[in-house]
Write a structure and sequence with these properties.
Blueprint lengths: L1 E2 L18 E4 L4 E3 H7 L11 E2 L8 E2 L22 H29 L5 E5 L6 H17 L3 E5 L6 H8 L7 E6 H5 L14 E16 L8 H10 L5 E4 L5 H13 L4 E4 L3 H10 L4 E5 H9 L4 E5 L14 H4 L7 E9 L4 H16 L1 H9 L2 E3 L4 H22 L5
Helix pairs in contact: 2-11, 3-11
């Protein structure tokens, strides 16, 4: 075992424990008095501490590697051990601030370049339904506005859950969007969803609203709401109404009619608004409460007979039709809505750019004309307002689903 002797960190002379010329600073850096007074001017070059004559600590005893205990010369040491803690915190906050600025700059730059490739618009129902009709009207105009193709991807199944799940699990880069309707607010009370309808998405923009229309197959011997109610009461369980699926707007509209009119008609769910309409046209089901958006063309072609619309007032595109309330079910009102979501984590600048583009599309004369021809009315909200609207719709329809006993089959 070798006993080491401390030395001056400036001139390297030995300073044994008995040395009277040893000077030790606040943080115990050791120098000789001559160096402190003549070279260092009383300030430690290592830590900035002040000096005082103090006894030198007994030397350490180390084996095998005695040279490892020697400090480097003062000129090579640059450790400021007296730096105030507040300065360290300031440096930390500055680093965090710079990181935040860098991230914000990257997100802003990404929005400037967005979109640089085609955008996928997922519609969680088959072609022909109201989601599909509204989605395609907006997609065509939005693509022109952004300078990139916005292509529709129909992903049907489980009342919209299948397509919505695909969107939830997509990259949050603005290149996958989702069209939703009232079903998005209702499905959580019916299906065991593999996603959170609020937390897993960011609201982009609401698109439009539209009422329903009560139609029957032309072979059904009724021409008014009153006649339909009389037939249903005369033959309980005889009439079937088709819907786009359990929990769809059509299903909710039908159940509301059953309760308010006091009739027994049987619900037959299909995999989307298009298939359900084809079923009524073919006579598989006798009637339906479909969105007016998807039904106008078949009414005009004579494939379906309209009895009434479900809004609070008559539809401007079919003003000759009474409302269901006017036809014999006082207080009946049913209206659907459509909007666009993006996966959670989509950069805010991209969401803002999409919202702005969609707002321009909805205010264009071409879009308003196309929606009006389908019986839909454009709506305008900020992204935050749309998010609050979705939550309010969930609060509104949850008890209705529970009271009506609507369950997945």
């Amino acid at each position: 075992m070798l006993e080491l002797r401390p030395s001056c960190e400036c001139c390297d002379i030995d300073l044994p424990p008995s040395a009277t010329n040893a000077m030790i600073c606040t943080f115990e850096c050791t120098f000789c008095r001559d160096c402190v007074e003549n070279r260092l001017k009383g300030v430690c070059p290592n830590c900035g501490g002040n000096f005082a004559p103090r006894p030198v600590r007994p030397p350490s005893k180390l084996a095998n590697n005695p040279s490892s205990t020697r400090r480097p010369p003062a000129a090579a040491v640059n450790t400021n051990r007296s730096m105030p803690l507040v300065n360290l915190r300031a440096l930390l906050f500055a680093a965090v601030g710079l990181l935040s600025i860098a991230i914000g700059y990257r997100a802003s730059a990404a929005a400037d370049d967005y979109p640089s490739r085609p955008i996928r618009l997922i519609i969680p129902f088959p072609p022909g339904g109201s989601n599909d009709v509204v989605g395609r009207i907006v997609a065509n105009q939005l693509g022109q506005k952004l300078g990139q193709t916005v292509f529709v991807d129909n992903r049907a199944g489980a009342g919209g859950v299948v397509g919505t799940d695909v969107a939830a699990k997509s990259a949050p880069d603005g290149y996958t969007l989702l069209v939703i309707s009232i079903a998005h607010a209702v499905d959580p009370f019916i299906y065991k969803e593999p996603y959170d309808p609020i937390k897993d998405f960011v609201p982009v923009a609401i698109l439009a609203t539209g009422t329903n229309v009560l139609t029957v197959n032309p072979s059904v011997p009724v021409h008014s709401v009153k006649e339909l109610i009389d037939l249903a009461k005369a033959k309980p369980g005889f009439l079937n109404y088709a819907s786009a699926g359990i929990g769809s707007f059509q299903n909710l509209s039908g159940e509301l009619f059953k309760v308010m009119a006091g009739v027994d008609i049987v619900h037959v769910p299909y995999k989307g608004g298009g298939p359900s309409m084809l079923a009524v046209i073919a006579g598989e089901a006798q009637l339906m409460f479909s969105s007016i958006v998807q039904t106008v063309s078949n009414i005009q072609a004579g494939r379906l007979r309209p009895l009434a619309t479900g809004g609070a007032k008559r539809s401007p595109i079919m003003p000759e039709l009474p409302t269901i309330a006017e036809g014999g079910v006082p207080g009946y009102v049913a209206a659907d809505w459509w909007g666009i979501l993006a996966p959670a984590g989509t950069p805010a600048p991209i969401v803002a750019k999409l919202h702005g583009a969609i707002e321009e599309v909805l205010r264009s004369e071409d879009t308003k004309k196309n929606l009006d021809q389908q019986g839909a009315t454009p709506l305008h909200m900020s992204s935050a307002e749309f998010g609050a609207y979705i939550k309010a719709e969930m609060t509104k329809w949850g008890p209705v689903v529970t009271t009506a006993g609507i369950k997945a089959e």
